[in-house]
Amino acid sequence: GDSNLRRLAHERLQVLLDKGQQPERTYFNMGMLAMQDRDISKAEHYFRKTLQLKANFDAALFNLALVLYETNRPLEALPFLQKLNQKHLKGLVLLGNIYFNHMNNYTAAKQCYESILQQDPYHVPAMHNLCAVHYQLKELEAAELCLLRATTIAPKESYIQHHLELVREHRKKTTHKNTQKPSSTVAFCNKPDDDCISVTPINSSILRYSP
After folding, report:
1. For residues 114 and 132, what is the distance between their CA atoms, to the nearest angstrom?
2. What are the TPR repeat spans here (predicted)?
3. What's the whole-model pTM score?
4. What is the mean pLDDT of the chain?
5. Alpha helices in 23-123 (DSSP H)
6. Which fold has domain 1-84?
């Protein structure tokens, strides 16, 4: 079975490690095997060992950040994501979501999503999350226009249509006074989740990255 194959792969990697052959790559591959086995502590250990040997190993930086994020340590993940190459789109998605969900730093989140869209204008999660940033900053017209564009790119995504309807409803109810732009640390949405626009959740099985 797959578990036996992974055990065999781990044994072979250990042989390579004992011989001192490409230790940073070997540690990284051992970390990936540990992730497949859902052994989070081992995965974290091996990715950290990788980075001790090669500090700019993008795949190890990202996967260590993902492990930390999945174990409810998003702020510990932050410095590893900040070291990534700015062309690492999955890293930018995760970084933006941490800024948005855990730090209420919508300006920094916006920069992440805009950077993704500059490289991939049809990146639906980044586009939707940028719309969510506009919403949190009370930029309701921008949020509506953003969501309209998102619906043209991903017409089958019902959550985008739902959020577009929420924005339109808020625009109808909002007066000029409370549409003034707040500081980037003030959240607009304090209602139950169904009435809020949040960023697209992280799907770790899609995000995991191996070069």
Report:
1. 12
2. 24-57
3. 0.80
4. 84
5. 23-36, 40-53, 58-70, 74-82, 89-103, 106-119
6. 1.25.40
